[in-house]
Specification:
Radius of gyration: 16 Å
Low-confidence stretches: none
Number of helices: 8
Strand content: under 5%
Shape: globular
Structural class: mainly alpha
Helix content: over 70%
Largest sheet: none
Distance between the termini: 32 Å
Amino acid sequence: MISLTDSQKIGMGLTGFGVFFLFFGMILFFDKALLAIGNILFVAGLAFVIGLERTFRFFFQKHKMKATSFFLGGVFVVLIGWPIVGVVLEFYGFFLLFRGFFPVVVGFIRRIPVLGSILNLPFISAVKHQQL
């Protein structure tokens, strides 16, 4: 079992609430207040989990500047009141930022009993061989 510090536990909670508020804001027809709260909680939770310095290093690497600008630009657009455009920008930036982690997540999900059998179906497992 992985041991977490108190600040990492707080960060996990903030990130979880951020994802919840983002999801709930989209369910409620892109409610800009819920999306703004979700964005702030998600970014703050990420900073608590991996640390402030590592968060800045992650977001501001030279090869990730395009992804960072889309993600943080989407957060800004949501905060100024255009939730649909902001969420689209955020999703694109999120995909660009975290696309290196997706194979790890899929590999982890393949070990979960029910989800793993679904991901191993022939028409779904063929997708993993395509390059992003």
